[in-house]
Every structure is written in C-alpha cells, then in structure tokens.
Amino acid sequence: MKILMLVATSVATDTRVLREARTLVDAGHTVHIIGRSVPADFVPGDGITVSSVGTSSVFRSEGGPSLAGRKLPPHLRFARWLLLPEHRRSSFGRWAAGAVKDAQAREFDVVHAHDFTALAAGDQLARERKVPLVYDSHELWTGLPREFRPTPLADAREKRVEAECGGRASAIITVGDGVADALKGVHGWDDVTVVRNTFPLRDSHPAVPEQPTGLVYAGRIAAYRELETIAAASRHVDLPITLCGPADQTWLTSFDPGRVTVLGALPLEEASALMSAAGLCLVTHSDKWTNHCLALPNKLFHAISLGLPVVATDVGELGKVVRQHQLGTLYAPGDAADLARAIREAVADFPRYVCNVEAARPALCWDADAARLRAVYEKLGSAQADDRGEG
C-alpha cells in the first residue's frame, strides 16, 4: 500500500515516526511523510520520502525569532503566557492546511495521522479519497501539561474533534496500555492497538560495567521531568549524575543543577555510549499531569535496549513496568531523599538488576511492537482487498 503519514514535527528526530515508517517499508509498503519544518538536508532512507510544510503563525513568520529560551521581563512573560495558545493554534492550523494541500497532489491508499495535531487533516484527506484513516495517538491529548493560560473552551472543542475524527478511523494506535485505557474511557473506543516506543533488539550491546560509575538522564531537559529532584538528590549521593538532551532554555535559566552536569542534546550513539559507560539510567517523570501517569518514556526503552538497569519515578505506567520486570529501583516523585535511597539500593543490587533487564529485553523491544503495527496494516490490506472483490 501507499501510506501517507502526517506529523507536525521535524521528522528528522522523531524516532517513533521513522521507526514505524521503516517497519512498514520493510513489510513491502511505501511511505511518504509530510512533516513540519523538516531540515532540508534530512535523508529518511530507502523507501521513505518526506516533504515539509512551514511553521508560521499570525504571531511569527516562518524562521522568525522565538521568545522561547530568552530571559524576558515580567510584562513580556505575561504576554507570552497569554498569547501562546493562540500562537500554537495558528501555527498548527496553518501547518495542517499546508499538509492537506501537499497531500491532495499525491497518491495514497491509507492516511496515517500522528497525534492530534494531524488528526483533522488526516480525517479530511481520508474522507476525500475514501481511504482508511489510522490515528496514531502519541499521548492522551486531553491530559497534556499546559504551559500557558487555561483554555477550557478550546480544550472542550479539541476533545470533541478527537472524538469525531478518531471515531471515523479504521484503526487507532497508541503508545501504551495506560493511554489505550484512557482513550477507551474518554471516547468509548474499544479497539486500540498498543505500539510502544521501544527500541530494536540489538544482537549485542556495549558491555555493562560490573558496578555503575555514574547515572545518566537522557531526555528532554525541561519542567515536569523531576530534574529538580535529581539536582537535590545529587548532593547526597557519591556517583556523578549527568543530564543530556534538548533543553527548554527558558526553564534552564532558573534551574539549580546542584552537583549535576548538564549537557546539550547528543546524537543517539553518543548518548548511548555515555549511558553504557555510567551503567545506571535515570528515568524520571512528575505526577502533576494525567499524561505523566500514563507515559512510558522513550528513555526507559533506550536503557533496556542497552541492557542497563534504571532508577525511575514510581508513577503510573512507568512504575508498573519497572516493578513488573524488576528493571531497577523506584522512588516517590518529588522526594530527593527517597531518590538518593533508590540510587544506593540500585548500586547495592546492581548485578541482579542487570540480569533482570537482559531477561526482559525480548519482551520490551521493537520486534514485538513492530509485529503489532504490521498486523494493523495487514488487516487494512485485507479489508481493501475484500472491497475490491479480491478477498
């Protein structure tokens, strides 16, 4: 089948989108992705093509300077907080309109809409062409943290749009059992396929040290990631702690890192090497928003792919998976003393946790999730064949 993917990201760093696209191409399909401000030099790989729509809004032209990451005086901080919802709505709306225009000139048999920001555009295209729509929900949209003023009317509208457009989808995919159950509860959808953000199972991975030499957090450096708790705990543990990843510079200006070393974003292999050398990974999330309680962070599966135990926040689905497979230790969110305790226990029982992670890798890898994704498309292909009288 010719699959059209829509995603309001740059694609180049979107591991979920690229991993799904590669899996479907390897299964014999072709994939075209319409992304958002995709780097001009990005090469997606054989069988995958990409086009790009810009990110302008009524408040900022394409490529214009952003206020994010700048230290602003109080009146400008207030103005940004007040206007950010309108900027986001305008930006995503213009991207969706551009994506529809791009897609209308293409041939496709299926529309695969990644996340709510692409859903309405995907629904429009699927109905125009009378082809199946796949809704791939990367999180519970109604449970997202808000960094701007309350928008109850817009929130209600988005919930209604998700229910209507998602209700017409031929298949619904999401990232974990918690989000799947929440979607069922919010919208009454009873057939949601879970395709997690796991990593491919490596034939081999870098050697795990006999004892950990440090702890690494590899993920976004921003609010609601328990990074303040990590910084506070760093003063009470002997092992060095490193944070690496893309940062919210506005948030970072007021962050006190304690004894933590803060690095910028690293290429995947460099981050993997840093994690493997340290031996222990920090997988942390706050419990402030519904989505955090439902999330299974990429960094958990990244650690598992490298055979590394974790020290994780005991919150929702994350705590459930770590506890189920005994992948490491857990601590109470916001409690620096408990995090220090969890680190000490992980170090003391490190060899056992290494064995547990190794045993869990086959169940918590992309091979298992890729099979679920392929099954969704096999079902769609069979339905289309039946419609053509070929079944």
From TrEMBL:
This is Glycogen synthase. It comes from Tessaracoccus lubricantis. Residues 15-197 form the Glycosyltransferase subfamily 4-like N-terminal domain. The keyword Transferase applies. InterPro entries: Glyco_trans_4-like_N (IPR028098). Keywords: Glycosyltransferase, Transferase. The keyword Glycosyltransferase applies. PANTHER family: GLYCOSYL TRANSFERASE GROUP 1, GLYCOSYLTRANSFERASE.
